[in-house]
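Fig. S4 source data, part A: sequence.
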Amino acid sequence: MFQTQTSDLQLWASIRQDDESAFNELFKRYWIRLYKTAYQYLKDKEASEEVVHDVFLNIWDRRGELEILTFSSYMLTAIRYQIYNRMRAAKSPLIYGDDQIPMNNFPDYNSAENKIEEQELHQEVYSYLQSLPKRCQEIFCMSRIDQLSNDEIALRLGISKRSVENQITIALKHLRICLKHLAAIMLMFL
């Protein structure tokens, strides 16, 4: 008959209680997706496998400390972080001993990676903004993208400056909550 699939959050709760079978299930559920993401950037089967295994090993090792609310977003961000670290390490030049060369003589190897990271962050922020009311989205974009002052927004939309401030505050609180997993991931790998 029908077999109901355990949700990611239920599996995560079990993993936090040291349930290895739940961890194996989560591994099976996300391994191929993370591998494909890693391979897309690294173009190396072995390196891609290592990166994915590093992510899962880190999750298992820190299962008691981590707070994960949206597992798919967390996993995608974690794999990207590992990929960027791997790519950055592969491209960074080694300087030995007294060979002191001014740092401005080195090209910026990470500019493409930084651009990709920035684009992905913009896409993620935009997707989180989509869950806000249209008016709130509009006011936030006018403030942060169009760089309009609160007075200019209020004048254009025919509302009070206080309403503009309230809508921006709502949007920022929403984004802070949605993007909290990024800060956790950054701390996880420090």
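Fig. S4 source data, part B ends here. The chain has nine helices and no strands.
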